Every structure is written in structure tokens, then in C-alpha cells.
Amino acid sequence: MKLTPMDVTEAGLALLSALWDHGPATIRQLVDRVYGQGGASLYATVQKLLERLEQKGCVERDRSESVHVFTATVDRAELIGRRLRAVADALCGGSLTPLLTHLVEGEGMSQAERRELRSLIDRLDRKNR
User: H/E element holding 20?
Assistant: First the structure.
């Protein structure tokens, strides 16, 4: 099944974030990282979420041991890019400009963030010359 940007639920994002932040993990480790201590129902929920993420190509499972270990196969930047593109397509006719303008103006970027953004734009301009 091909992953589309909005196919990952908030619960799936929480699991992916734990995998991105801490690396490969078992179901039990993910339950502890995302939910604190959990019981059998949380374990079953995480197991089902991981199965769905695996079907979508977002995680892979190492079955070489008795306890399976899951690894994220999509990185955070790629998923962010896909989701932002989907929002731009749906709300802005495909243009990123209104989306970026709102983020920059509406969120009150710090001076450091504005410098970082200017530096990024300058690097992209130099690269495209």
C-alpha cells in the first residue's frame, strides 16, 4: 500500500516520533515510551497501529528474534514535507507561499529562527545559480 501524507493518524505519529527520537523498539518499549506504563489493551492497540504503519510502508519489523523490533522506514523530514504539500494542495491551490507566509507571520518567529530562515533562503539561492 502506498503511503499518502495524511494516512498517518495522530496515534501513528506518536509511535513514529518515538522511533525517530529513540531508534528501533519493541512493542513493549513503544507502549512505555508513548503511554507510560500500560496494560494489555494498550499493548494490543500499539501492536495494531504498528501493523497498519507496516502495511503503509512507514515501519519495518525485524522478525529474527522472538520479540519483534520495529524501525521507522520513513523519516520525519519526508513525512513533514508530504503533509505540508498535501495541505498546500488542499488549501492553497498547490502554492506553498500562503502557507509559509501564515507560519512566519502568525507564529511570531524569534530572531534566531528568522536568521536561520534567511540563511536557508540564501543557501538555496546560491545553489540554484
Answer: helix 10-22
